[in-house]
């Protein structure tokens, strides 16, 4: 399918994108019966940002995404990764009415674009900028990573003692996995900075051999680690 | 048992069995009872010798009684007397009847207490001519010819009362603000989505009278269509009536009537005090007031030296205060007043608002849900509070006189900001897409103050000195405990008015 990024039309609009945190959904306003494209980008970038840093190409991120989509088939009713950290999802009017569009994690920016499919051609329309209503939505994310010294219990005749094992137990939250991008979250262990990988986050709980409590930092400005 | 009714137009009080009715039956415009050779009924009476003369005269009298009449042709007509105060033009409309060629206020008015009128009314089983609803309130008359007259009118001004008006508690809200502050656009947008907004606070809403539909028809807001013209300031706009139905905490169904008044903006300008007096009753009798402030009324937005006193937001408040308190009484105006910055999506306003406030205003008004996820009858004060504080901070910096006036003379007030359109306007037409933001919030707050909603805000106690909680605030953490010598003094609340802490 050929994807084209075209100037906006008054009768084809999608804007006022908001994140409903309680129901973990995105909401927006659009022209009647309008299919939309939801674009998820790392925090600090939206669809109109330059694609040089993220995609290594000229033009805006949405333009690069349209070019790349021409050679792939996005999944139906799911987010598809187009570039590292850049995801897209098409939402039909029926899907929006029935279930809405779920969010795909936080610490990112969502953008909404009106689009029209016609056979093998899909036109994605540029959003109209209004002073207050925006087609972009920043979603910061608070991450709570538990890191506690792992101990083993030794029972004596009349007492029991907790003895450290020399490991730290690190528990990653479930909500970190959606939209997770490799090499954005770092763990500092014994003075050495190690990347937190997707496998570690999927595992949920990992053990690290260290005497001091590991610390964490994120390259993603949308992450707030506590 | 009689039901007391206060007319929403002239505010006269009457019992439900003292109201009048507009006749459902209207005679044909041309009478065909008296033969053409007679000039008029008097000529017929003088010259006609037929045996059916009395019968014909009786039928003619009945035709004449039920003929339509223009109240404005009779200066003593109560309807004309009322509307002559407001430029001699009635704003009552009924599109359906007008298509049939009949103006609603041309229908004859029947007084059930008048013997000359009673002879046309059918007696009911209880011996009266009234048909009552289940609650015992008079709702209609039945004519001998079979028609049911259900349109009640005020006994004193002959203005129509909505169906069932008086059966439920009535709460009225007046919408005021200078010309161009956006009152009509705001009302139109609010009414358009009234059902959704009411549902978000657990209420069901129905328009109780055609005035709401007529208002929306005449003031439709769509992309590419010219915005409504400013309300002519001598005209009185029809009140808008809604029924709000909800469940209280005991699971009982409650119904309240909400009346909205749109007051023209020029009334608040200097030189129009005479006209303001005519509209004073609507503000005086209002249970709550929404004051719209166009951000362009602030010098920091419109530019230094651009404004005169008449454009100042305080001008409308001064007018309200002079109406509500006869002698600027010590307590000021105790009615709840929602002070709203309108049109905040304008470039000029967006430039001066802080990023944090802009972000908060862009979010939607979140309902407070119960365990099933259904909205409760609660105003989300917790979400609104930081917005109000930011708006107050902004006004303190840019229009401190407004904040001082509100604090001193309107102790029961709150700050709001919204946009009714959310898009630019070019050549008087919205460019689109039209997306209002937070326009329902002032209404929610007022409904909370009027007892129709509760609030999720922590209750504030009354100040022991001022005896009111209007100025009570919770002390910041760092001020709550103070060590004096060997004792630690703990305080939780303070009063901004007298400075007391407790």
Any descriptors?
heterodimer, A: 226 residues, seven-stranded mixed beta sheet, three-stranded antiparallel beta sheet, 18 strands, B: 502 residues, alpha+beta, 3 domains, 17 helices, 24 strands, elongated
Note down, in words, how this protein is organized.
- The complex is a heterodimer of chains A (226) and B (502).
- Helix content of chain A is 11%, strand content 46%.
- With 226 residues, chain A is mainly β.
- In chain A, strands 1, 4, 5, 6, 8, 9 and 10 form a seven-stranded mixed β-sheet that branches. In chain A, strands 2-3-7 form a three-stranded antiparallel β-sheet, with no helix packed on it. Chain A has a three-stranded antiparallel β-sheet with strand order 12-13-16.
- In chain A, a hairpin with a 2-residue loop joins strand 14 and strand 15.
- Chain A is elongated.
- With 502 residues, chain B is α+β, with helices and mostly antiparallel strands.
- Chain B has three domains: 4-26 and 66-161, no CATH class; 170-455, P-loop containing nucleotide triphosphate hydrolases (Rossmann fold, 3-Layer(aba) Sandwich); 460-502.
- In chain B, helix 14 packs across helix 15 (400-409).
- The longest helix of chain B has 18 residues, at 381-398.
- Chain A binds chain B through residues 10, 13, 15-16, 18, 22, 27, 29, 31, 128, 130-134, and chain B through 223, 344-347, 350, 358, 361-364, 366, 369, 419, 422-424, 431-433, 435, 437.
Topology:
The complex is a heterodimer of chains A (226) and B (502).
Chain A: E1 2-6, E2 14-20, E3 25-30, E4 35-42, H1 52-55, H2 61-69, E5 80-83, E6 86-91, H3 93-98, E7 101-102, E8 108-118, E9 121-125, E10 136-139, E11 141-143, E12 146-155, E13 160-171, E14 185-189, E15 192-195, H4 198-203, E16 205-209, E17 215-218, E18 223-225
Parallel strand pairs in A: 1-9, 11-18
Antiparallel strand pairs in A: 2-3, 3-7, 4-6, 4-8, 5-6, 8-9, 8-10, 12-13, 13-16, 14-15, 14-17
Chain B: E1 4-6, E2 13-15, E3 20-22, H1 41-47, H2 53-65, H3 78-84, H4 95-99, E4 109-110, H5 115-118, E5 130-132, E6 138-142, E7 148-149, E8 151-153, E9 160-161, E10 170-177, H6 183-192, H7 194-199, E11 204-207, H8 210-218, E12 240-247, E13 253-262, H9 273-284, E14 288-293, H10 299-302, H11 313-324, E15 337-341, H12 347-352, H13 355-362, E16 378-379, H14 381-398, H15 400-409, E17 413-417, E18 425-426, E19 429-430, H16 441-449, E20 454-455, E21 472-474, H17 477-480, E22 481-484, E23 487-490, E24 493-495
Parallel strand pairs in B: 10-13, 10-14, 14-15, 15-17, 16-20
Antiparallel strand pairs in B: 1-2, 3-4, 3-8, 5-6, 6-7, 8-9, 11-12, 12-13, 18-19, 21-24, 22-23
Helix pairs in contact in B: 9-11, 11-15, 14-15
């Amino acid at each position: 399918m050929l994807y084209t990024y075209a100037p906006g039309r008054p009768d084809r609009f999608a804007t006022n994108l908001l994140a409903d945190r309680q129901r973990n959904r995105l909401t927006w306003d659009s022209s009647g019966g309008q299919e939309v494209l939801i674009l998820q980008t790392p925090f600090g970038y939206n669809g109109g940002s330059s694609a040089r840093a993220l995609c290594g190409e000229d033009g805006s991120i949405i333009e690069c995404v349209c070019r790349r989509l021409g050679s792939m088939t996005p999944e139906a009713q799911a987010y598809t990764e187009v570039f590292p950290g850049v995801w897209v999802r098409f939402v039909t009017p029926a899907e929006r009415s029935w279930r809405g569009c779920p969010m795909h994690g936080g610490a990112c920016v969502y953008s909404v674009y009106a689009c029209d499919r016609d056979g093998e051609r899909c036109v994605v329309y540029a959003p109209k900028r209004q002073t207050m209503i925006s087609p972009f939505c920043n979603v910061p994310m608070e991450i709570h990573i538990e890191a506690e010294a792992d101990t083993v219990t030794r029972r004596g005749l009349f007492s029991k003692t907790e003895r450290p094992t020399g490991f730290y137990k690190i528990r990653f939250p479930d909500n970190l996995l959606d939209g997770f991008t490799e090499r954005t979250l770092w763990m500092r262990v014994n003075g050495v900075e190690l990347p937190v990988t997707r496998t570690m986050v999927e595992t949920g709980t990992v053990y690290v051999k260290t005497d001091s409590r590991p610390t964490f930092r994120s390259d993603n400005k949308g992450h707030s680690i506590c | 048992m009689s039901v007391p009714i206060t007319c929403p137009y002239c505010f006269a009080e009457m019992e439900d069995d003292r109201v009048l009715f507009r006749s459902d039956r209207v005679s044909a415009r041309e009478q065909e009872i008296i033969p053409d050779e007679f000039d008029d009924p008097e000529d017929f009476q003088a010259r006609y010798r037929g045996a059916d003369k009395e019968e014909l005269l009786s039928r003619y009298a009945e035709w004449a009684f039920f003929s339509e009449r223009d109240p404005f042709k009779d200066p003593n007509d109560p309807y004309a007397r009322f509307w002559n105060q407001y430029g001699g033009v009635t704003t009552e409309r009924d599109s359906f009847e007008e298509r049939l060629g009949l103006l609603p206020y041309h229908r004859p008015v029947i007084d059930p207490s008048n013997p000359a009128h009673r002879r046309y009314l059918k007696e009911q089983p209880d011996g009266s001519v009234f048909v009552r609803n289940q609650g015992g309130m008079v709702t209609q008359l039945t004519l001998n010819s079979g028609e049911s007259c259900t349109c009640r009118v005020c006994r004193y001004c002959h203005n129509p009362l909505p169906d069932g008006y008086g059966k439920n508690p009535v709460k009225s809200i007046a919408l005021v603000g200078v010309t161009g502050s956006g009152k009509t656009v705001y009302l139109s947008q609010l009414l358009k989505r009234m059902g959704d907004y009411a549902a978000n606070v657990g209420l069901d809403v129905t328009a109780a009278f055609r005035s709401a539909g007529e208002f929306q028809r005449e003031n439709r807001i769509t992309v590419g269509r010219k915005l409504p013209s400013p309300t002519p300031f001598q005209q009185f706009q029809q009140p808008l009536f809604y029924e709000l139905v909800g469940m209280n905490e005991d699971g009982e169904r409650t119904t309240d009537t909400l009346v909205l008044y749109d007051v023209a903006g020029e009334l608040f300008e200097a030189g129009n005090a005479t006209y303001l007096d005519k509209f004073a009753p609507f503000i005086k009798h209002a249970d709550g007031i929404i004051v719209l402030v166009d951000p362009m009324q602030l010098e920091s937005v419109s530019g230094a030296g651009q404004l005169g006193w008449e454009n100042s937001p305080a001008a409308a408040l001064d007018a309200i205060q002079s109406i509500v308190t006869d002698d600027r009484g010590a307590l000021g105006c105790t009615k709840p007043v929602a002070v709203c910055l309108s049109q905040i999506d304008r470039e000029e306003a967006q430039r001066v608002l802080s990023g944090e406030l802009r972000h908060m205003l862009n979010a939607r008004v979140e309902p407070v849900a119960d365990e099933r996820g259904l909205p409760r009858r609660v105003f989300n004060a917790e979400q609104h509070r930081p917005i109000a504080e930011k708006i107050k901070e902004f006004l303190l910096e840019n229009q401190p006189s407004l904040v001082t006036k509100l604090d001193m003379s309107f102790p029961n007030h709150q700050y709001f900001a919204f946009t009714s359109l959310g898009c630019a306007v070019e050549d008087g037409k919205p460019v689109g897409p039209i997306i209002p933001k937070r326009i329902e919030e002032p209404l929610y707050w007022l409904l909370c103050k009027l007892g129709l909603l509760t609030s999720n805000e922590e209750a504030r106690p009354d100040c022991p000195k001022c005896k009111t909680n209007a100025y009570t605030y919770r002390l910041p953490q760092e001020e709550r405990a103070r060590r004096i010598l060997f004792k630690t003094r703990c305080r939780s609340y303070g009063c901004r008015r007298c400075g007391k802490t407790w």
